């Protein structure tokens, strides 16, 4: 608990420091072919670490896993209400979507409501992450656009907030812009970290990214799950974001995508959100807990498997949910000819 | 050396066994965001381990990194000569190509020379790995085919060998087929391993994959570099394969791809070949050495960086080559907006 209240930012393993445990094994035929190490934190809103594996005090970049927290100012400033954003728009403001046609249409409409156009985007063009959507775009002679960027919903929310507050839209991704400074303040109060001294960088979509201990990312998720010690305006904002993610899981991720599948099956009490470089987080309102995990090597396949088994082990999934998520719990690997060649599985040491 | 001559197949780290060292760090802003562990073996043709990092006796699946060795029977049976395969066809038989139009056209022609058609392929359809090629295919209304499969050149070589020997083409990927049994024999003699007891599985393209200690994969590469202790027919075959890879590097990998770039710049004395799940191998004829490395978590980005720094450290690159390969030695990471957000670098402990 002290670690989360007074976090220290160490990013380089000290000499002799134990490495994080192997969490996920990739089987091929009769042998483990690859192994993913990492750390997992399950934290209560008071900062107590309920369960953990590996070093949860080490600083990580939360990447897109923190988007539900990053969306709080959209609600707290009144921007979402002013522009009449509903579940779809709020879910998109927390999304890493796959650039499917419905995502793009909804983000376009969201921008229009905020009186802005896609020219305002500073996130850069990204091809749709969903392969069918990418193929359809190419077939139609189209080119990747910022609207297809997996973060375009978040950026639409940031632009809407700036417009609602009468701030310049230009430069909304800069660290000195009020949009980012408000987010920094929210991150500090929700994670319990003074981020002034934190390592920082630029995210895949051009906004600032601040490092924080893994346990503190889990703490922020716990406070999203149970914001009862937060100011009333934040309590309402957190509850609204959770409700939107639960109501519109397609707009949080996409077709056949992990977060969408898990929320569709296990929501509204299991709200998961992934990020680049092997980060995954979960808001668990029924349990009043937050989860955060990071795969050391950045592997997404391992982050998803570690998350679903963490949820299973801490009682986040009912038996019915676990059965419905069998393919996520025990994913089979097939090759290009469709033959079963192996699987992903939790390592023997994976007992959180 | 004993380990390579009498390899043991352990695939699960024993309790208390030290983990492989961190080889590659992924920087974002001011912090290391992700880390890749692994092992590297540099081996001489007599089986002596010249340099190593991590556990080089642990069994790994060599995946496509072993393709130059896997192509030996195509030469040794006389099939390549009978069908008048030149540098392009022999390079393709060792390739993991990106499915670009030139690759597809050359594989199609290769099959025709062998009197076969693409219907014979058992590798499965794979979308072109080169994004421009995938987009062009979609724009033209085409669909992914087995010809686009990164292994289609290898399969064309296997089919050609079966036809030359009068063996049935149907089932050429089965472990009991003479094509695969010949390859097994070549693997055993080149790696010095009795693979009868080895863990095995099915590769991404449906052919058998046998596990072998990492050091023994490097030994096979050393024997490709200097086959002077091998029978004369193998000496000629190995030299022919090396010459083809050096002459036609585009057909080994593809546009802006690692192996092609390295061989174009540093060949014919640096012949590199990658495989799935973080495996990379190198044949170094001038030094008379073989290299093999495996990233524990299967990360390709780390395998490429570890290979280029291994080559640099063991004298595999001249100063001129190293300068020409600066972007491979010190790769910058840009985000979707084109901003420099970080880099990949060898870990401080990376001194092979």
Description:
- The structure is a homodimer of 352-residue chains.
- Chain A is globular, with a radius of gyration of 19 Å.
- The first copy, chain A, has helices spanning 2-5, 67-70, 72-76, 79-82, 87-93, 101-113, 131-139, 152-164, 178-191, 214-225, 232-247, 258-266, 300-313, 319-324, 326-329; strands at 22-28, 31-43, 49-53, 59-60, 200-202, 208-210, 212-213, 271-275, 279-284, 289-295, 332-334, 340-346.
- The longest helix of chain A has 16 residues, at 232-247.
- In chain A, strands 1, 2, 3, 8, 9, 10, 11 and 12 form an eight-stranded antiparallel sheet that branches. Chain A has a two-stranded antiparallel ribbon with strand order 4-7.
- Chain A has 15 helices and twelve strands.
- At the A-B interface, β1, β2, β4, α7 and β5 of A face β1, β2, β4, α7 and β5 of B.
**Topology of chain A as a string of helices (H) and strands (E):** HEEEEHHHHHHHHEEEHHHEEEHHHEE
Helix content of chain A: 25-40%
Number of helices of chain A: 15
Major protein interface: A-B, 57 and 57 residues
The tally of beta strands of chain A, per DSSP, is: 12
Shape of chain A: globular
Mean pLDDT over the full residue set of chain A: 95
* Rg calculated over all Cα atoms of chain A: 19 Å
| Unreliably modeled segments of chain A | none
Q: Specify the structural class of chain A.
A: alpha+beta
Specify the biggest β-sheet of chain A.
Answer: 8 strands, antiparallel
Please write out the topology.
The structure is a homodimer of 352-residue chains.
Chain A: H1 2-5, E1 22-28, E2 31-43, E3 49-53, E4 59-60, H2 67-70, H3 72-76, H4 79-82, H5 87-93, H6 101-113, H7 131-139, H8 152-164, H9 178-191, E5 200-202, E6 208-210, E7 212-213, H10 214-225, H11 232-247, H12 258-266, E8 271-275, E9 279-284, E10 289-295, H13 300-313, H14 319-324, H15 326-329, E11 332-334, E12 340-346
Antiparallel strand pairs in A: 1-2, 1-12, 2-3, 2-10, 4-7, 5-6, 8-9, 9-10, 11-12
């Amino acid at each position: 608990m002290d670690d989360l209240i007074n976090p220290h930012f160490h990013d380089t393993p000290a000499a002799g420091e134990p490495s994080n445990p192997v969490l996920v094994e990739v089987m091929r035929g009769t042998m483990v072919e690859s192994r993913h190490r990492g750390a997992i934190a399950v934290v209560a809103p008071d900062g107590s670490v309920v369960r953990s594996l590996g070093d949860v005090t080490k600083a990580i970049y939360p990447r897109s896993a923190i988007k539900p927290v990053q969306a709080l100012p959209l609600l707290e400033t009144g921007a979402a209400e002013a522009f009449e954003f509903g579940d779809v728009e709020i879910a998109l403001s927390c999304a890493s979507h796959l650039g499917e046609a419905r995502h793009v249409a909804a983000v376009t409409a969201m921008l229009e409501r905020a009186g802005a156009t896609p020219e305002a985007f500073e996130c850069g063009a990204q091809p749709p992450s969903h392969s069918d959507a990418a193929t359809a775009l190419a077939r139609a002679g189209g080119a990747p656009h910022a609207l297809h960027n997996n973060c375009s919903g978040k950026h639409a929310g940031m632009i809407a907030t700036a417009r609602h507050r009468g701030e310049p839209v230009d430069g909304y991704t800069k660290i000195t812009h009020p949009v980012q400074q408000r987010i920094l303040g929210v991150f500090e109060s929700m994670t319990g970290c003074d981020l002034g001294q934190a390592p920082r960088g630029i995210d895949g979509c051009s906004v600032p990214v601040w490092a924080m201990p893994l346990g503190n990312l889990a703490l922020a998720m716990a406070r999203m799950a149970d914001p009862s010690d937060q100011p009333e305006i934040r309590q309402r904002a957190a509850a609204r974001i959770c409700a939107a993610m639960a109501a519109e899981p397609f707009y949080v991720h996409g077709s056949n995508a992990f977060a969408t599948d898990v929320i569709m099956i296990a929501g509204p009490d299991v709200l998961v959100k992934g990020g680049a470089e092997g980060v995954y987080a979960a808001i668990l309102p029924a349990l009043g807990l937050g989860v955060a995990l990071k795969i050391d090597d950045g592997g997404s396949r391992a982050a998803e498997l570690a998350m679903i088994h963490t949820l299973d082990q801490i009682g986040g999934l009912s038996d019915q949910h676990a059965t419905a998520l069998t393919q996520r719990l025990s994913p089979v690997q097939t090759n290009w000819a469709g033959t079963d060649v192996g699987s992903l599985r939790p390592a023997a040491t994976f007992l959180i």
